[in-house]
Specification:
Blueprint (H helix, E strand, L loop, with lengths): L1 E5 L4 H12 L3 E6 L13 E5 L5 H8 L4 E4 L11 H22 L3 E5 L28 H18 L4 E6 L1 E3 L10 H7 L5 E3 L3 E6 H14 L5 E4 L2 E4 H12 L6 E3 L1 H17 L9 H7 L2 E2 L4 H7 L7 H13 L8
Parallel strand pairs: 1-2, 1-4, 2-3, 4-5, 5-6, 6-10, 7-9, 8-12, 9-13
Antiparallel strand pairs: 9-11
Helix pairs in contact: 1-6, 2-3, 3-4, 5-7, 7-11, 8-9
Length: 332
């Protein structure tokens, strides 16, 4: 059986592709010519040049494939980039689903995000049915992932066998860019000196999230969404765990929203002129950093057999991978 993967060279995608090839699956991976392929050396992988915004490349690459994992996306927590977010996350997902319908694939698993899950009142854990509350944050990435889910559901109504998974904040090895791992690097190098006095999120081991994708393909119910989570932590608690494992002092200065509002606003303005230079200091990061975005993965545990696991292993292995690949110095 031949499997089709978009986003296979990204952080979560690399871990999924490595898992699938370790199970002996043959893969066709859609990738842009300059996408990094670290960790993806296998005779079972057939790379095809293409893009989710290019319908012709999708149709050609998906030919003869029986299952589809659609992970590709535009992932930036910024107030800018709405056009790209919609072009890639929404219209790109529409293109993938339309190609899957035309190809008659057995099943498609779409990688959504915790960004498409609402926050429950009072910091209680949200689930797959919690009303979406994050539109007020005005973050293009969040809005586009929610809209992309609607696209998938509309294709399910037309006969597509599709399942949606919602990974939380993924951490672990093979974060090449890095993406989520930037927060780990900032703590480990001492650049993260402050923590928000309020706010937290659910963290999941990227390898557990990859296993959740495979389980969703095998056991998920058509049209359902499944949170793939791990452990709910405040940012302060997460920073403290990273610092302890890295052997560095933990960020010791708790700051409130108002303290960070001005520099974040300036970062947002500058980021529109110099894109990708203020991705860690802008109003979108500020708004998302002060919400308590906790979730329960009980549905995935119950229906997919994917249990939550402690996050320490993911932190440890992320740090080791960053050292091995030169992002961090080796311990003296």
């Amino acid at each position: 059986m031949l499997l089709f993967v978009t986003g296979g060279t990204g952080f979560l995608g690399v871990n999924l592709v490595r898992l699938l090839t370790s199970q002996g699956h043959r893969l066709r991976v859609l990738a842009r010519p300059r996408s990094p392929r670290i960790g993806l050396v296998s005779d079972l992988i057939d790379f095809r040049h293409g893009d989710v915004t290019d319908r012709a490349s999708l149709a050609e690459a998906m030919d003869d494939c029986e299952e589809v994992y659609h992970l590709a996306g535009w992932v930036h927590v910024t107030p800018w980039g709405r056009r790209d977010a919609w072009r890639i996350n929404v219209e790109g997902t529409r293109n993938v689903c339309e190609a899957a319908l035309a190809a008659g694939v057995r099943r498609l698993v779409y990688t959504s995000s915790i960004a498409a899950i609402g926050c429950a009142a009072g910091g209680s854990p949200a689930d797959e049915t919690t009303p979406w509350t994050l539109g007020r944050l005005r973050i293009p990435y969040y809005d586009s992932k929610r809209e992309a889910e609607r696209v998938v559901q509309s294709c399910v109504e037309r006969g597509l066998d599709a399942v949606i998974v919602n990974p939380t904040y993924v951490i672990g090895p093979w974060d090449v860019k890095p993406t989520a791992g930037r927060m780990i690097l900032q703590v480990a190098t001492g650049r993260q000196r402050v923590y928000p006095v309020r706010g937290g999120v659910n963290f999941v081991d990227v390898r557990q999230a990859a296993r959740g994708h495979v389980a969703a393909m095998a056991h998920g119910r058509i049209g359902e969404r499944y949170i793939l989570g791990g452990e709910n932590l405040t940012y302060r608690a997460f920073f403290e765990r990273v610092a302890a494992m890295a052997g560095v002092p933990a960020p010791g200065w708790g700051v409130g929203y108002a303290t960070l509002a001005l520099p974040s606003a300036l970062g947002s303005l500058a980021g529109r002129v110099f894109p990708h230079t203020f991705e860690d200091c802008n109003l979108s990061v500020l708004r998302s950093g002060f919400i308590e975005h906790y979730v329960t993965q009980a549905k995935a545990e119950r229906e997919l057999g994917v249990a939550a696991c402690p996050i320490e292993g993911a932190i440890r292995d992320a740090l080791a991978w960053f050292v091995e690949h030169g992002y961090l110095p080796a311990a003296g």
